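Page 42, continued from yesterday. The earlier attempt failed because a stray header line got pasted into the input along with the sequence. Redoing it now with the clean sequence only.
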Amino acid sequence: MNVDSVAEEKYRISSAGYLERAEALVASISKNSLFYAAFEIRCGIEARMREYLEAREDVSEKKKQGWGVARLGKTIDAVFDSKNGLSDKIVRLQFFDRSSKEILYQLYYTPVSSSLRAIGERLGDYLHAQRDITSMTPEWWQKFGENIELGLAGLRDTNRGTIMGPPMFGPDKRLSLTLSPPPPKPSKMIVGMNLIMNASRHDAFPD
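This time it went through. Structure tokens are written below.
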């Protein structure tokens, strides 16, 4: 192996990077590739949860270094108040010009939902040596493929958002948002506008 060439190749460990590789593997239409795609999807789910935790200053470094879908999911639920449904709902923030009612900005928080976490854990079950080749029936492969498709769709959705966590008010009653990527600097016209913010929750990505 040429170590120099491997070092020069950029290996992205962001959730979006895992998603990109998973999509390429599935596009190859190979049974062998499905196992590697399952790995990339599962890692992408974990990476997205870590990205949300990394954006929070009130989360300990120990919790941010956690691993595993189930463990990270419990931390996400604790931090983002799962009892109020914040950890499992898409949140849309719309910013309007008070005078014209024109929508100037739309921002989204897209969670790693409990259903996507469950898919990630199911995909992990496939990443072990199979005991009996006869158990890998056409139905087995079909179910595997369905889980791959569901995992890909969910990972795409959770990477569509730009708000790194559900909007929450701090002890000072101020709303703090961390965005990724950072938004462009607003024009002087927008800075001088009188804005209204509207927040809404959704089970699916709004059209």
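Notes: The CA atoms of residues 80 and 87 lie 5 Å apart.
Reminder to self: strip header lines before submitting.
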